[in-house]
Amino acid sequence: MSIIELGEVQARFADIVWEHEPVGSGELVKICERELNWKKPTTYTVLRKLCEKGLFRNEDGVVSAVISRDEFFAARSKEFVKESFDGSLPAFIAAFTSQSRLSDEEIDEIQQMIDRFRKEARK
User: HSE of 22 in the Cβ direction (CA atoms, 13 Å)?
Assistant: First the structure.
């Protein structure tokens, strides 16, 4: 998946779509008017641009995601680690934890993830 760049306005709009999908385009206009103070043309312009980028689709007046929120942020995270730490997840974790300590709960959660990944890799 190629990385889709979103500006601040597009990111706010994307969050709304992900939160409400599938959502009728008319309902989306109402939500954006209420939450972003947008007029109908603004909603449709931003929607069209994000459909062109391949993030969403608008079929028969129903807006839904082509790429889920989790998939989107997973790809962005992977790209960040690749660009900033030469793709090394351990280097990223070392840098992250050098500035803030992990709680016992976070350490346990990470260990559970490692154990699960190790188990899956052995299959």
Answer: 10
The CATH code of the domain at 8-69 is 1.10.10.10
Cα separation, 46 vs 52, in Å, equals 10
Q: Encode pLDDT of 58-85 as tens digits.
A: 999 999 999 999 999 998 999 999 999 9
- Predicted TM-score of the model (pTM): 0.77
Could you give the count of Cα atoms lying within 13 Å of 47 in the half-sphere of its Cβ?
A: 27
Q: Where are the domains of the chain?
A: 8-69, 88-123
Of 88, 56, 67, nearest to 2 by C-alpha is 67
Return the closest-CA partner of residue 93 out of 104, 105, 77, 75. 77
Separation of alpha carbons 40 and 31, rounded Å: 10
Dist CA 8 CA 26 (whole Å): 23
Do 62 and 24 form a contact (C-beta atoms < 8 A)? yes
DSSP summary character for residue 102: P
Are 59 and 25 in contact by the 8 Å Cβ rule? The answer is no
In the block, residue with structure tokens 């990470």? 110
